[in-house]
Amino acid sequence: NRKVVLNQRPQGEIKDGDLVIKQEPVRDLKDGEVLIKTLWLSLDPYMRPRMNDSKGYMDPIEIGAPIVGESVGRVVESKSPNYAVGDVVTSYSGWQEYSIIPGDAPMVYKVQDHGIPLQAYLGVAGMPGRTGYCGLVYVGKPKAGETVVVSAASGPVGTVVGQTAKQLGCRVVGVAGGEEKCRYVVEELGFDECVDYKAGNLEQDLKDACPNGIDVYFENVGGAVTRAVAKLLNSGSRVPICGYVSAYNAEDASKVETPFHVFGAMEDKPEHRFFLVTEWQDKHQEITAHLAEQIASGKIKYRETIAEGLDNAVDAFKGMLKGKNFGKQLVRVAE
Ligand code: NDP
Predict the structure, then answer these.
(1) CA–CA distance, 245 with 222 (Å, rounded to integer)
(2) pLDDT digits (tens, 9 = 90+) for 6-54
(3) Which of the residues 41, 122, 304, 329 has the least number of beta carbons within 10 Å of its own beta carbon?
(4) Residue from 245, 300, 321 to probe ligand 1 pocket by mutation (most atoms less than 8 Å from CB)
(5) 256 lines ligand 1 (CB under 6 A)
(6) ipTM of this model?
(7) Closest by CA position to 327, among listed 112, 165, 162, 210
(8) Whose CA is nearest to atom 39 of ligand 1?
(9) Fold (CATH) for 2-123+302-332
């Protein structure tokens, strides 16, 4: 069993030797356990803060342990009545070719067939998609005619936020890095506008794209984008704080100006709070089915970037934190 483990905690950007590949035989199953072969691995920005020693909203990954992550896999052996050989499941099995889980482990779901590719259950029909949907609908509470801005607009979270907000009748403005991503967000995903924050004119471009100000800002990135957005927020606006990826490689997290600092310091503060997708865990199946149907019927479009094999996972992950991915970043581990 080959796995990517945390060899030492990265300082700033991930460097050679921080994450290494280890090989171990797969042990025999005990009663009640299930052996899963990983097919697809999801790479998600939140994995970077978990490599640090500080406790965030999740515990740090231990040195020597595989990097945590959700995957789609097939049951290849089962000593649990809950799973049969051949079942396809999503589980938090980490960056490894095989994993053993107890048959009653939480957060493991059998994939229902909605006629969409399996790996979509790690992206727009998976955890990032549910994050975008729930954060927008339940925290952002957008109303028809309002202006919704979402950063990291071409990624799986932003993709679902923007297309859902369009369906709700909002004016939708994306923020993304580079002309190609912005063109895709408008032409393919149907956003009204998309601002390229790398083009050098962020504040003015955002102002031009939001002539009526901003009512909902779905926060994915932090940094300069957050500061530009803050100037345009209308009274009574809502800011679901989903993440702030621009700070994830910071050497000293305590020195980062977070979205909480920026929005909390405003005189007319927006309603802002950090949320976790797991707040709506009881709606997991319902929202997954909704998103999968939207994908199957072409109402939600998306892109993905695929790295081949576990050996390329680390480079793909480093690239994603710099925006080298275009759409959901995945690793194809096995056919
Ligand atoms: P993406 O696939 O969108 O990948 C991250 C993107 O962030 C990059 O592609 C890049 O896009 C952008 N980015 C990187 N660095 C910067 C920077 N310095 N300034 C601005 N943008 C930057 O990721 P996801 O859709 O999977 O996740 C989006 C956000 O959602 C993340 O913050 C993540 O942590 C959060 N999240 C939160 C969850 C929760 O429960 N709260 C659950 C899941 C995700 P570009 O090229 O456009 O800059």
Answers:
(1) 7
(2) 999 999 999 999 999 999 999 999 999 999 999 999 999 999 999 999 8
(3) 304
(4) 245
(5) no
(6) 0.98
(7) 162
(8) 276
(9) Quinone Oxidoreductase; Chain A, domain 1 (3.90.180)
